[in-house]
Give the backbone structure.
Amino acid sequence: MKTSKFSLFRWLNLFGILLIIASCTPRQRPTYIISESVPTGTPVEPSATPFETRPVYPPGTLVDYVAQSGDYLDLLSLRFGTTPSEILFSNPEIPKDITTLPPGYPMKMPIYYIPFWGPSYQIIPDAAFVYGPDLLDFDLSVFLDSTQGWFKNYGAFIQEKYRNSAGIIKYYAENYSLNPKLLLALVEYQTGALTNPQRDPTQEATFLGFENYHRSVELQISYAADLLNDGFYRYFNGELTSLALEEGTIENIDPWQNSATVALQYYFSQVYKGEAYKKAIGPDGFAKTFKDLFGDPWQRNLTVLPGSLSQPRFILPFQSGTTWAYTGGPHTGWGSRKPWAAIDFAPPSRTQGCVETEQYALAVADGVVARTDSGTVMLDLDGDGDERTGWVILYLHIAEEGRVKVGDRLKQGDKVGRPSCEGGSATGTHVHLARKYNGQWIPAAWSVLPFNLEGWTPVEGLAAYQGELVRGTQRVRASTLSDSASMISSD
């Protein structure tokens, strides 16, 4: 896995000017490396008894816990009902300023019992959930060609482009940053479309069981992808601690759970009830379908976010000496739900709406262009040209004319392309930026590692697109109106 060394951020002066802008519909912690003797990729076998009852622990009991990919102190304190200081007291070898914990690291966790814990069975690891290194030896087209079901012959138009079944899965896997194995196993578990050759078009409007405006196979997959990400990242960010099941039952999530399992529990709680739900989240449900199709995911590399993760030095995405507007505080990276991985900037303009601009969005760091699509540029910062590994920056709403091409190698500050309204939904010319590491979205205002652009870091508002950019005592409010308080300068 690739990590980046911590570097100091350059400071800029803030000055405000009046501009017409458009919109799209806490601090950096120093990082330390724990001793190399600590295991970083030890597999954690899932429990074989999914609905076992854990004991009622006396308050503050020390229990065994092995760190999982993406664990950090604030999150573990929420899950176990303790505090970061208590965790550090019980594990004095952990540096106080650690960012992410090394996967496989054994710990003693103070626990405070909450009744009605959910199942302990882990369905799949996080590595099998995200569009990351787990896929480096997987060929989506070859796999689908080997299946006998009708789905491999399905096709549809997405973003005005016809895509076959592999293209549909790839489109949603890339953009939502989800493992295509996950989406395929979901299709098979719920519909049997990978193995059943008989297609029934009358069932396709509610292909995955959702009776809403997503009335086609591909739109049902898109809706499912959005729900899955919502569950994964709300749990990862400490926002989802319980599930509402049938008849008002509230189930507190088992503290040992991983984000991928919780995402699937959340997803299936929207689809099934009673015994059907219990089967789906148990060893004979979705987990068995996944294993039958792709092998045991727990026997593969389980690390997505390594220990002591740090962000490279990023600059603001516009030219020095210019002033742009901060038009969107933390909001979804892709789709309509969590994670709030993205922020928006708009260039100066004399008119509102989707207008052409001569201003360019710039590369926030050195990288190679790994992918382009409608309005989209993926800048891969580790230089291997594969967006599934290392740090990657998503640029959205980049005009096709004059933008970079796949394989272009950029230096920090090089032109990526002109902001526009192309790709996705937009009401005005701007650029949408989001980060991923090894295929996992990194929330823009993540307390462990906020999106740092020359010292400016986002703070979430009460709703998507709200909030501020903060650097020391300077604060810039996100605004979709002509407002000098939303202007940020680079010089």
Q: What stands out?
A: The first strand starts at residue 61 and ends at 66. The chain has three domains: 61-111, 126-299, 322-490.
